[in-house]
Amino acid sequence: QEPLRKIQTFITRIMETEEDCLSENGKNYLNRTQDAANRMQNLIRDLLAYSRLNAEVFPMENANLYDIVAEVKSDLEESIHEKNAQVIVKGNPEVKIIGSQFRQLLTNLLSNSLKFSRPDVPPQITIENERVNADVVPFENKLALHYTKVSIQDNGIGFDAQYSDRIFEVFQRLHTIKDYPGTGIGLAIVKKIVDNHHGFITAHSESGQGATFVLYLPA
Predict the structure, then answer these.
(1) What is the pLDDT of residues 1-39, one digit of tens each?
(2) Fewer CB atoms inside 10 A, N or C side of the chain?
(3) Residue 214 phi/psi, 5° resolution?
(4) pLDDT tens string 174-207
(5) Residue 169: is it exposed, middle or buried by C-beta count within 10 angstroms (0-12/13-18/19+)?
(6) pTM
(7) CB of 110 within 8 A of CB of 71?
(8) In whole angstroms, what is the distance from residue 187 CA to residue 215 CA?
(9) 90 near 128, Cβ under 8 Å?
């Protein structure tokens, strides 16, 4: 990332010290270059995060879902306040997780709910947890008798149901970068984290009707 940081630093210095010498076109080109560099930095960051997800390095631990959500809300406090969002946690507090990875998972999903909210509609995100038997988990190759089912539901713009599987692919985007900035890796990271837990994830939505992500993690 070092060459990219130098590019960003030099652009900032030019904008700060040479602004009076630049034409409007020159300023526009530099601003566009800075935006492109910022997007590239975000892409590198997300690719590194994706490549570092290795289940063998991180032990499973018993944790309190309410506490983890509180930590994620604190990290996203500015966005939550800006959008007047409400985050509700319900159900069983007990989860068995890879702590740092699960926090990243929740951060990605909540960030998406905040990003893809409807204009002039305060986001409402409900996180609910329950313990279920393996026979209700709609997947094969189940390794446990019981699972933790965590649902994350929002009231945002949603997406067309035909994309329910594709959204977990790397670089998969359903909206233009102009309308909704991002790298297209966030949900791929979520899927990788769920795989590291030997769990499953589904997504349900209709365009304009919000989205629901359901995680099944071995209990």
Answers:
(1) 677 788 888 888 888 888 888 888 888 888 888 888 887
(2) N
(3) -120, 125
(4) 554 455 555 567 888 899 999 999 999 999 988 8
(5) middle
(6) 0.73
(7) no
(8) 13
(9) yes
